[in-house]
Design goal:
This protein is of the alpha/beta class and 288 residues long. The chain has 2 domains: 9-240, Alpha-Beta Barrel (TIM Barrel), CATH 3.20.20.60; 255-280, no CATH class. 41% of the residues lie in helices and 13% in strands. The chain contains 12 helices and 8 strands. It has helices at 9-18, 30-38, 50-53, 65-78, 97-110, 125-133, 149-152, 162-178, 190-199, 220-223, 242-258, 275-280, and strands at residues 22-26, 43-46, 83-87, 115-119, 138-143, 182-186, 204-207, 215-218. Helix 2 links the parallel strand 1 and strand 2. Helix 6 runs parallel beside helix 8 (162-178). The radius of gyration is 24 Å and the shape is elongated. Keywords: Cytoplasm, Magnesium, Metal-binding, Pantothenate biosynthesis, Transferase. Catalyzes the reversible reaction in which hydroxymethyl group from 5,10-methylenetetrahydrofolate is transferred onto alpha-ketoisovalerate to form ketopantoate.
């Protein structure tokens, strides 16, 4: 968007201090990124949720680093004045530090992201610290972590009891100490998310984590019902139903093609006089 200046991690921390909420939305390609930037979203997340909503997988686990680089690069072309965060996909930051940094390098140099997002808490703090020390901003992600869905027993709300609340707080603080510039809290009880937000000096961004976070993030396809079979989610508010409009539009197109209503006169181009004589020979009649 002309005249817009991308946020940076210093400005985001200042927004937390000033009580100004951060509005983040996912994007997976050039047009969605361009539209989100024009709508003045603060940040774009190229989430590995693209596995579910774009690539047709049942989870985020099959998403590869090549997938993330490809889609991040497309988003970067569409939103050149918006802060872009790219997900580190499954098992790309649990090996050696050297391997992790190579994977981060690809998202930054080839994908043109401004930051990376990583799922996990204290157990990934060393990797987060190494990435930050290498000069790359890191956004943490705790609570429901989709890459670990098989381990945590499904898509369950986190922070329902005191023990789990304490674990989440400790994970958030570990990420802050490691240098993360913010933390996504997914499917966390509102009370716990609010308490974590107050304890941290870095912004929290909620998704299904209530009203006390410093910002919110939602999936592009959920906000717009951009899917053939939309499944309602309690923590999501949809603001438009483009899925229905797309289906209706394509149906009308197919109907008009079948009925020879499209293309109509206004959609065709006329040749200059005499062209058919030169094509078929003067006096000849085209036969089919």
């Amino acid at each position: 968007m002309a005249g817009k200046h991308a946020l940076n991690i210093v400005k985001m921390k200042k927004m937390k201090q000033d009580g100004i909420p951060l509005a983040m939305i996912t994007a997976y390609d050039y047009p969605s990124a361009q539209l989100a930037e024009e709508a003045e979203a603060d940040m774009l997340l190229v989430g590995d949720s693209l596995g579910n909503v774009v690539l047709g997988y049942d989870s985020t686990i099959p998403v590869t680093l090549d997938d993330m680089v490809y889609h991040t690069r497309s988003v970067a072309r569409g939103a050149q004045n918006t802060f872009i965060v790219a997900d580190m996909p499954f098992m790309t930051y649990h090996g050696s530090i050297d391997e992790t940094l190579r994977n981060v390098r690809r998202l930054m140099q080839e994908g043109h992201a401004q930051a990376v997002k990583m799922e996990g808490g204290a157990e990934i703090a060393m990797a987060v610290q190494a990435i930050v020390q290498a000069g790359v901003p890191v956004l943490g992600h705790i609570g429901l972590t989709p890459q670990s869905v098989n381990q945590i027993g499904g898509y369950r709300v986190q922070g329902k009891d005191a023990k789990d609340a304490r674990r989440l707080l400790e994970d958030a603080k570990a990420l802050e100490r490691a240098g993360a510039f913010g933390v996504v809290l997914e499917l966390v009880t509102e009370e716990v998310a609010t308490a974590i937000t107050k304890e941290l000096s870095i912004p929290t961004i909620g998704i299904g984590a209530g009203r006390g976070c410093d910002g919110q993030v939602l999936v592009y396809h959920d906000v717009l019902k951009y899917t053939p079979e939309y499944r309602e989610k309690r923590f999501v508010k949809t603001y438009a139903d483009i899925g229905t409009q797309i289906r209706k539009g394509i149906s009308e197109y197919v109907k008009e093609v079948k009925g020879r209503a499209f293309p109509a006169q206004e959609h065709v181009f006329a040749a200059e006089e005499g062209v058919l004589d030169n094509l078929y020979g003067k006096g000849k009649v085209e036969t089919r």
